[in-house]
Structure formats: structure tokens, C-alpha cells
Amino acid sequence: VQRELARVRRAAADLGDVDLRLPDVRALLSDRLAGRPTRANFRTGTLTVCTMVPMRSVPHRVVCLLGLDDGVFPRQGSVDGDDVLARTPMTGERDARSEDRQLLLDAILAATQTLVITYTGANEFSGQPRPPAVPLGEVLDALDTTASTSDGRPVSAAVTVRHPLQPFDARNVSPGALVPHSTFSFDSAAAAGARAAAGPRSAPVPFLDGPLGPSESLDVSLADLVRFWSDPIKGFLGRDGVDVALPADEDEPEDALPVEIDNLAQWAVGDRVLTDLLAGLDPGVVKQREWRRGELPPGQLGWRMLGQILERAHPLRDAAADLRKAAPRAVDVAVDLGGGRRLVGTVPEVYGDRLVPVTYSRLGGKHRIASWVNLLALTVSDDDRNWTAHTIGRPHSRSRDDVATSLLGPLDHTARTVLLDLVALRDHGLRAPLPLPLKASLGYARARRTRADVADALVKAGFDWRDSKFPGEQSEPSVLKIWGRLEEPPEVGGAPSSGEAFPGETGRFGALAMRVWSPLIEAEQGSW
User: Fold this and answer.
1) CB count, 10 Å around CB of 61?
2) Sign of CA dihedral 312, 318, 321, 322
3) How far apart are the C-alpha atoms of 386 and 398, rounded to whole Å?
4) Ranges of H-type helices in 178-298
5) What is the spatial distance between Cα 408 and Cα 367, in angstroms, rounded to a whole number?
6) If 0-12 CB within 10 Å is exposed, 13-18 middle and 19+ buried, where does residue 320 land?
């Protein structure tokens, strides 16, 4: 690098002081630091590794072309903004794609005995087939048109070898499966894996042999109770249960500027925007603050997306302002659960007698049950006031409303019985996992509340349970960790355990769904 910079300095000695912009420096150095053809060891009998550039088509006994994947070859030439010739291309000018096609032909003709071409034929995760590069596909089509095999197979199929995706595949270590009269792999560990895969299968070991012992903790934290019922299955694996970590995907930082952001990133932006709007900041200031974070796509792409997020957040802010008339406060609760146990904690976002949580997410069961537990704690702790819970969120995608609201309460004397039942079910859920996926159980309970039979209610629950356009609850890491992959919610046909029965329900899943959701649905005003 120092040597090249010294050459640049000597070449520019007669030009005097010239101010260079960053694109000028990049163009200057790209030419000087570009790869140059060097003296290669052609025709020496050793291995030669080079790129497909002109003047490299020297005949060889064996020629190997690696990585001719679709989208990678031929080169996708990008046009610079100040390239006048590229704006109106003319016949005879350089074309990178045409040059690459010619280089492929030269490389094929340079092979005197053996030609090996590789490409990624399948997705490494899903196994879905991937096509080769277009020029390679045309070569295979030309083979089928101009030649034939003795057994009548297409020539392209005869010359194509599809290698297994896993190194422990039996074909890798079987003589003649991929390479005539020999094995493709010499890895002893892969051979051991192939033998194990071909051996007898053992039944999967259950995650838990039986319920755990009772917890020694007496007091129950309100925050822990809310967190458990936000995801009962994950709550058993959490720190209050067996404390088992679940696999999580880590997003790698992008090298390029984002052109669009996914739904999770949009939610993060919307949640910050809504928080600033609820704090009373001017929408213009909120927009400028979020724009300067640098997480949105550049230019009009990000500006338009930010405008859409603000349009969704404004109705939520207005709906919250109508309900948050009083000064905000946090209410401490302490409920005697009997047997020397207490439920203690603090309920935030209380305005007068109203609990008014607001979320940028689409209003679902997770938000409803969190407000339900907090409302039960407020009512049992201080039954002299008519407590209500107004949960505000975005509506379902098929709804025409701008805001979705769940109104719970006021509650009667049965609130204490319901709260004790939720605490008791949580105690069971920390000793053994409750088969209660939140969305599927809510769909089941709603269907049963409309007098649907068990079969129809299970069909309704299956909409949230099974994978469709997006992964369902059957693909949740916590579900896979405990039960594996199930086509129906867990323990649909299992009998309810002691203290879990519900009138009219014979399955444990249905009984638990009705015990948890039925009191909430009865207390909620308005339609679902």
C-alpha cells in the first residue's frame, strides 16, 4: 500500500494541490489496487488457481470451475451514476455478462481430458433445489440436444452428480455411490455417523418423567405472575421453572444500507415512536429523532416508511389521551393467598380507576391476559373502587378500525376466586409444563363460548397452532423443546389433572383453555 501511494504521489507531483472527493480517491485507488495478471505456473504440472479472466484459457488436462451459482455468475454489472455511456448503451461496447459467457466457453474448450463444474444445487437449510447459472443451464441443454446416452437418459442427468447435503450421508462413505469403485469421503467420523443413522431408532426421551417437587417460595410476585401467563409453556422453562435456555437466532449486522426493514424492526420503530408521542412530544420532533437513529432505509424509502408508522401510531395516541385524563400513578398491591402466602407487586399505568396500557403491537391474547391479571390484583387488593382495564393496540389486519380496545371490568366478588385459580395453575405450571399455547387456547375458548363443539373448536385453534404463511405456535422453540413437533396442540386427548377439570371438557388442553380464558371473555365488554 505504501508503495502504491508513493507512486500516486510521484505521478501527481506536477499537478500541484488538487482537492479530491471521496469518489475520486476510491476510483484512483481501485485502478491501482486492482488485481493484475501475474506470471502463472501454467503447463508446469502443478495446480493452478486463477479467476476466469481473458488470456487464462490455456489448455489443461483437467479444468475445474467452482461456484457457478445462479445470481453469482454471470456478473451483475452495476452502473455508476456518472457513467454517460451506460445510460445509452451502443452495440460494440463492453458488456460484463456477455464477457462472462465467452469466458465460460473458453474455459470449457480449454479442458483436454476432464471438465468439472460445481454449483450449489440445493438450499443448505431447507434442501430446496436451486438452479445453476443461466449459461451453465444452456450448456446442459446443448448436451441434451446434440448427444444421447446408451440407456436413453438425458445427457445432462448422466453427467450431473448431486452430492448429499450432510457429510454423514451414507452415499458419501459407500463405494461407488458417488465415485466409481471408491468412496467420496475418507472422514471416519462421517462414516460413524452414517452407521448410526442407519441403525435402529430409539424412542425420544420425554422432557420430564414426572412433576417436579413443590416450590419453597411462599410469596408470589405480580410481575412473575404476569410474565408466566404471557407464555405459560415458556414460563415453565424460564428462571421461575427449570431455567432452561432456548436457542435464539442472532441477527448479523448488515454490510449494506437497508432498503427495507422486517416486521420486528418496524415494531421497534413504532414502539419508540408511540412512546415519544405518549410522552407529549411534537410529531415533527418524534419524526426527526427517529430519522436520525440511522436504522431506517435511506432517502424516500425510509421517510415513507416512517410516515406510515406515524399514521398507525397517531390513533393509538389519541385513544389513550381520551382515557388518560387523570394523573398517572403506580398502585402497590398485596393480596393474602392463604397458607401464609401473599401476592405482592406494583401495577403501573393507572389513571384514576382505569388501567390503560397501550401497545404498538396488534392487540392479542398476550396483552389481554396481562391486563386481566393486573385488574384482578387491583380488584382483590382494593374492592372499594370500580377498577377497569382499557387495553389499546393496533387492530387485526382484516379490521377496518384504526384502534383495537379491550375493556375489562368492573369485577365482582368472584375476582378473588379467579385470581387464586390462576396462582394455583401457575404453581402446577412450574412443576410440569401446562399444554396451553396462548393463541391456540384463546381460539379454542372463543369457539367453545359460541357453542361450537370440540372438533370445530380444535379446527379454530389449529389456525394459530399450525404453520402457514408465518410459523405457528407448533414451531415455537419452547414447544419443540418439550413435546417436539405436533400436528395438534399438546395433550388434546389427555385427561385433565387434579384441579384442572372444567364442565363439558374431556381433554386437558380444552379444560385448561376454558379455565383460563372463560372468566376473561365473560368480563370483557364489547365484541372480539
Assistant:
1) 9
2) negative
3) 33
4) 188-198, 222-230, 232-237, 263-278, 283-291
5) 12
6) buried
Q: Which residues contact 226 (CB under 8 A, 6 or more apart)?
A: 370, 373, 374
**CA nearest to 344, candidates 463, 448, 224, 235:** 224
Q: What are the φ and ψ backbone dihedral angles of 482, each rounded to 5 degrees?
A: -95, -50
Long-range contacts of 144-148, Cβ-Cβ distance < 8 Å, separation of 24 or more: none
Contact by Cβ (8 Å): 472, 466: yes
Q: At what angle do helices 22-32 and 2-11 cross, to 10 degrees?
A: 110
Q: In the structure grid, which three cell numbers stand for residue 471, read together?
A: 410459523
- CA distance linking residue 510 with residue 496, whole number of Å: 9
Maximum distance among all Cα pairs of the chain, rounded to whole angstroms:
96
H-type alpha helices, 147-203: 155-159, 188-198
In Å, what is the CA distance from 430 to each residue of 238, 336, 371, 434, 494? 9, 20, 21, 8, 19
Taking the alpha carbons at both ends of the chain, their separation in whole angstroms is 68
Residue with cell 449486522: 253
Residue 32 — pLDDT band, cuts 50, 70, 90?
confident
Q: What does DSSP assign to residue 173?
A: G
pTM of structure? 0.70
pLDDT score of 440: 95
* Contact predicate 356/375, CB 8 Å: no
**Is residue 495 a contact partner of residue 482, using CB atoms and an 8 Å limit?**
no
The yes-or-no verdict on residue 292 having pLDDT over 90 is no
Of the candidates 142, 137, 160, 150, the residue with the CA atom closest to the CA atom of residue 71: 137
DSSP assignment of 356-425? --EEEEEP-HHHHHHHHHHHHHHHHH-TTS--EEEEEEEPPTT---S-EEEEE----TTHHHHHHHHHHH
Residue 472: closest CA among 486, 482, 458, 483: 486
CA 307 to CA 9: how far, in whole Å? Answer: 49
pLDDT digits (tens, 9 = 90+) for 399-420: 888 999 999 989 999 999 999 9
Q: Which helix (H) or strand (E) holds 144?
A: helix 134-146
Q: What is the residue whose three cell numbers read 484512483?
A: 28
Separation CA 492–CA 509 (nearest Å) = 5
182: which DSSP letter? B
Q: Do you find a cis peptide bond into 410, omega within 30 degrees of 0?
A: yes
Nearest by Cα to 305 from 362, 277, 267:
267
Q: How far apart are CA 279 and CA 297, in angstroms?
A: 26
Query: Sign of torsion, CA 438 444 449 454?
Result: negative
> Considering only CA atoms, which of 161, 162, 166 is closest in space to residue 124?
166
Going by C-alpha positions, the residue among 235, 202, 230 that lies closest to residue 479 is: 235
